[in-house]
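Dear colleague,

Thank you for sharing your sequence with our group. We've completed the structure prediction you requested, and as agreed, I am returning the results in plain text so they can be pasted directly into your records. Please verify that the sequence below matches your submission; if there's any discrepancy, let me know and we will rerun it promptly.
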Amino acid sequence: MKIVITGGAGFVGSTLCIQLKKKYPSYEIVAFDNLKRRGSELNLIDFQKQGIAFIHGDIRNNEDILAIGNFDVLIEASAEPSVTAGLDSDPTYVINNNLYGSINCFNACVKYKAKLIFLSTSRVYPIEVIEEAAFTENDTRFVFNENQKSDGISPKGISEKLSLEGARSFYGTTKLSSELFIQEYAAFYGLKASITRFGVIAGPRQMGKTDQGVVTLWMAKHYWNQSLKYIGYGGTGKQVRDILHVDDLVDLVDLQIHNIEKFEGKTYNVGGGLENSASLKEMTVICEKISGNSIQIDEIPETRTADLRIFVTDNSKIESEIGWKPKKSVETTFQDIYNWIKENEKQLETILK
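Please find the predicted structure tokens below.
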């Protein structure tokens, strides 16, 4: 089997390349990436060691994708992942990359009769509906209340039943648009595809920044004794996200590659779930415990555009229909990131510090 992973030198892409090659040595794994994100070039060393082919290309250029040649599976992991992309600047890049680039990938899948594993995002859900949900503030976090006016929001989190009406960011809109195109390709061209809406994904190999990769950012700042900020919602650090370890994502994608028929025509929300959720304040406590460092954290009361007070994934649908559920805890995720930083301190210092 030949598997192409677009965005293959990124965090999720490189982890998929390496773990799939390790599990299936006879498979041909091809990492396809434009190396735009800082730090992605470090993964090329591991690819060479493990016999993973690398193609320097851009999904926006159809010629680059066609140069890959025939393949059996394409995992689309190449998105511009920042929620703020295009909100305070020209949105052309995020639209070209996440929508037009994805369509080039879909066309290649149809050409070669290949399966498509599409990594979508929880950010397809509209901001206003989630922000207006009834919540309670406790000592360390915000939590969704039981009684909600919108179907699809509960104390367990956000389910697939939540309405898609409303603004969601250019990032979320490009991903939702791609989902809609996949439905068309499936109906009219017979494309075999899985669509998964992932929440926050974290783990080793992630080059964390303020707008994307907050879990790595939090641990890196504690590791190097640097300051952080609680931004928005009064500066209390009580906003919450569920956290999915990248290894749990790999297990699911492995299942999708080999059992695509279980996922065809369906869309699933996938994340760490309520049991693997944490507020920024709770993340600080975990990082202090693992690193042994206590750092300065400033409070910025003003909330940023497109931010969310709470996003927790309700995994009920995929757990009941597929039987998949996350295995790794929030603490394990932070510990794995800490160990990775410690083992690669010199390489990562200039990028994460």
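Summary note from our side: The first strand starts at residue 2 and ends at 6.

Kind regards,
the structure core
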